[in-house]
Amino acid sequence: MVQATVDVLDRGGLKCDLNYLVEANTIGSHDAPNPDTDYVEIPVWSLVIDHPEGTILWDTGSHHEALDGYWPEGLLQAFYPHDVRDHRLDDDLEAAGYALDDIDYVFQTHLHLDHAGGLEFFEGTDVPIFVHEEELKFAYYSAKTSKGSDAYVLEDFDRDLNWRVLHRDREKHFEDVEFVRFPGHTPGLTGTVIHLDGDGTVIFTGDEVYQSENYEDEQPLGGPLTWAKRDWFESLQRIKDLQRTHDAEVVYGHDPDQFEAIRSGWGQ
Questions:
Q1: Phi then psi for 179, rounded to 5 degrees?
Q2: Which of 6, 93, 122, 243 could be a cystine partner for 266, CB 3.0 to 4.6 Å?
Q3: Where along the chain do its domains lie?
Q4: Element spanning 55, H or E
Q5: CA-to-CA distance for 220 and 209, rounded, in angstroms?
Q6: 13: Cβ–Cβ under 8 A, 6 or more apart, which residues?
Q7: Residue 18, SS3 per DSSP
Q8: How many alpha carbons lie under 13 Å from residue 90 in its C-beta half-sphere?
Q9: Neighbours of 50 (CB within 10 A)
Q10: Are 207 and 201 in contact (CB under 8 A)?
Q11: Closest CA to 1 of 175, 250, 204
């Protein structure tokens, strides 16, 4: 168990159809062929892990100019970042008591537009950016062709960055912190397992699990946001195995209720 603290940064919110997050959340029937959809707000957040071996920024959120032409219109309409102008990464770090210069490492669960938008703040620096090889390849493939996933913005990650590429399914680079690949949402999505002195083990699933329905009811992510459903289900079982092994707390990627509960962080 490592003596570390984990701060949660509020990076704003997205408004979207819940069907993107929970497959068939609303679905027509004979008697109700056109049901109203659930249009909801979901949180976007980052972590600052203050570890004895360095300060790690976990994901970098949405780009602060997403509403001003930085995001393509189709993505803007699908995942509306209504308050993104109020959530520059440097400002959100400062609100939590950190400066950009305090960040020794960046870890990217994946490179979708609501997770990699703050990488520009590390362009031209020597700050290592951890990301999985499969994620980096898929992000470029998606952004440079008409295949793959539509949820990447090339300008987020096509920069002069000091990539520290992960190659295996499980890698340890810091004491009691393990990066674990959970393919499904994307090929290279990678979560984090931290064994904290005092707070026990916490599993940060990233977008392998959006909300409690995905985890507890095993309801898949919405189809457009699932790269491979079988891989997603196998990754879900891997997380559940880890939870049972370590009696761990499991933290989802975009659950509004859980977000309110974790705002105070860990190890404080």
A1: -90, 120
A2: 6
A3: 5-25+37-262
A4: strand 54-58
A5: 9
A6: 41, 42, 43, 44, 81, 82, 83
A7: helix
A8: 5
A9: 18
A10: no
A11: 175
Where do we find the tokens 């898949």? 220
pLDDT tens for the chain, 268 residues long, are 999 999 999 999 999 999 999 999 999 999 999 999 999 999 999 999 999 999 999 999 999 999 999 999 999 999 999 999 999 999 999 999 999 999 999 999 999 999 999 999 999 999 999 999 999 999 999 999 999 999 999 999 999 999 999 999 999 999 999 999 999 999 999 999 999 999 999 999 999 999 999 999 999 999 899 999 999 999 999 999 999 999 999 999 999 999 999 999 999 8
Name residue, tokens 């002069």: 160
Q: Give the span between the Cα atoms of 244 and 266, in whole angstroms.
A: 20
Cα-Cα-Cα-Cα torsion 155, 211, 266, 172, nearest 10 degrees, comes to -60
Given a contact cutoff of 8 angstroms between Cβ atoms, the answer to whether 191 and 235 are in contact is no
Instruction: Return the SS3 of 162.
Output: strand
β-bridge partners, 54: 51
Which tokens go with 170? 């499980």
Please give the single-letter amino acid code of residue 258: Q
Judged by phi (left if over 0) then psi (alpha if -120 to 50, else beta), residue 15 lies in: beta
